[in-house]
Amino acid sequence: MYRLINLLLALALLPLTLQANDGYKLWLQYYPIENAEDWMTDVFTDAKVNGSGETISIIKNELELASEGFFNKKTSFTESGSKLWIALKSELPANLASRSTEDLGEEGYHIFNANGQVIVTANTQFGLLYGTFRLLQQIQLLEPISEHGIVEIPKIQKRVLNHWDNLNRTVERGYSGFSIWNWHRLPRHIDQQYLDYARANASVGINGTAITNVNANALVLTPYYLEKAQALANAFRPYGIKVYLTARFSSPMEIGGLKTADPLDPEVQQWWKDKAKEIYDYIPDFGGFLVKADSEGQPGPHNYGRTQAEGANVLADAVKPFGGIVMWRAFVYSEHTPDDRHKQAYNEFVPIDGKFRDNVIVQVKNGAIDFQPREPFHPLFGAMPETPLMMEFQITQEYLGHDTHLAFLAPMYEEVLKEDTYVNGEGSEVAKVIDGSLHDYSMTAMAGVANIGTDRNWTGHHFHQANWYAYGKLAWNPYERSERIALDWIKLTFTSDPDFVNPVKEMMLRSHEMVVNYMTPLGIHHIMARSHHYGPGPWVTGGERADWTSTYYHNASEKGMGFDRTRARSNALEQYAPELQEKWGNLETVPEKFLLWFHHLPWDHQMKSGNILWDEMALHYQKGVDEARQNVKTWKKLENHVDRYRYEHVLSFLKIQAEEAQWWRDAVLLYFGQFSNRPLPEGVESPEHDLEYYMNINHKFVPGI
Ligand code: GCV
């Protein structure tokens, strides 16, 4: 009977849900559940949450939201909690506490079933919050809780979003509107969106946020802005989220009135100490500093002939008494260094391994160039056993078509995390560097450059919410599988109907490879348009920096194309373990996905398929276009499974993507065709226009610069 009522209810709500859903609720839709098992409804009928305070209120509120969404019923909080009991381990009676044998640490949780009573337990309220989100996810996914239950302990300590948000609310490489931080209205107005942001992060285990751009403005460290940052920190704290700020290295001069920012100058050291104390007076649990130094015009220790360690340590000493850390970026390279850009960070950081204070962690991008659609892992991973290294992934799609191109990034993240560095023999995967197990790091962290903005659905493309979600899941557990992440996200965000879930999952899982195919297959890289990186630009050459051009990377001529990183030229390969030098340096064994990353090859180079390089390349571009077109068709067939608003929005973006995939294919093949001097192989469509046409496309005011 109960089920029947639910079914009728769900049917009654159906037209409503199919009509308007702007996506604001992300993966926390809590849509009506049919076919719920009894325990799933029961937990809301007799629930008890121990304790008090803001985090506990958030937990209770979440239960209420879910109960109303799933079953259109209020949650009954009772004294007994005979169906659901959420309590710290220390509050449970011995017979229940003893069921939870693992050390859950500060953030882990255990959910189990004790004779019909669901228990969510943890050592802290934040653990309880994570456990509650998981319980609700389990219910929406219609998945059981076994007797032993679910034990989850994060494998990475600091799981941080990096916002490249400027104080004027523009977002560098942001494609989803403006910054959600309304600095002008802060600190007096706390927008509901800040709380919704914190809630969404907590629901996937993100516990830190660096709220300002790494291309930093020193003003954020002045009282005027610290008061505003404090207001955000206060809003985020109950959700277990710490605030970090980006520190401009020249701040002692710009806002402190000193004549130098030399890290070895005692006055500079004192300035940072005083500044740290001031920040902690505003934000007692301030996470620490994130720093981009000596890169792309940012000031840094190089200005004073100092090392990156000397630079990082002055900030580290300042925050150390308060428990703060410094995330010091390894994205250091210079147009004045006459070496392959690929090699520069490694050359700079490996000699100073072990020279950093113990509260510094070096933040390394997944690859050595710059968030390309595909890169081999950064050679620093595995090369600094004495210095904790953290991963920096880019969630926003600077080089992946911006917000209109569907690219589910979990497979890309997973690919990098699974790569074997071989530094301690076979099985030394990047994930083991990041989770600290390979080198016994004392601190572990992961950063994701956020794709969030003021767009109503947060991320521009509805499907790019999945990248925020996936980042959180992989930061919690870098061994999580993309397929699992995709499945859960689709079901939480849309529906569990297999007729929708299966084709969408396939579409998502193939999407990154599809984008690689129509943008940069076979190891081609950095051939996007100049500066804004929107659309193809293989012809980009000249200008202020060679390492910001395309020709620097593809080296195309009548003889062939590719970047020779073998011993014959830059020898970047030497920075990897001997096993990889051997494998990637050898044309027989290098994976073709990295071919032109490491080798310069003639157009008639024989590929494994039997095709010559030129033909193979052209076929990859065509494949990408075909898939992008197919996605439009696939989505159209799903019209009846998704609400009108999201259906139309996604459809429109998929159409743009299909058109732009073609733009990429035509422009790139026409450009390289000048050198290959060969016809397009059978199966590859002829370009619509000539090369000049594509070279003259000039998009104005592309967002994100
Ligand atoms: C924040 C790339 C981007 C820059 C970005 C930089 C970085 O070069 O194009 O916008 O600056 O990476 O990661 O610091």
TrEMBL record:
First-tier enzyme category under EC: hydrolase
EC number from the UniProt entry: 3.2.1.131
Transmembrane segments: none
GO cellular component terms, A-Z: extracellular region
One BP annotation, GO: glucuronoxylan catabolic process
Family designation: Belongs to the glycosyl hydrolase 67 family.
PANTHER family: ALPHA-GLUCURONIDASE A
Protein name: Xylan alpha-1,2-glucuronidase
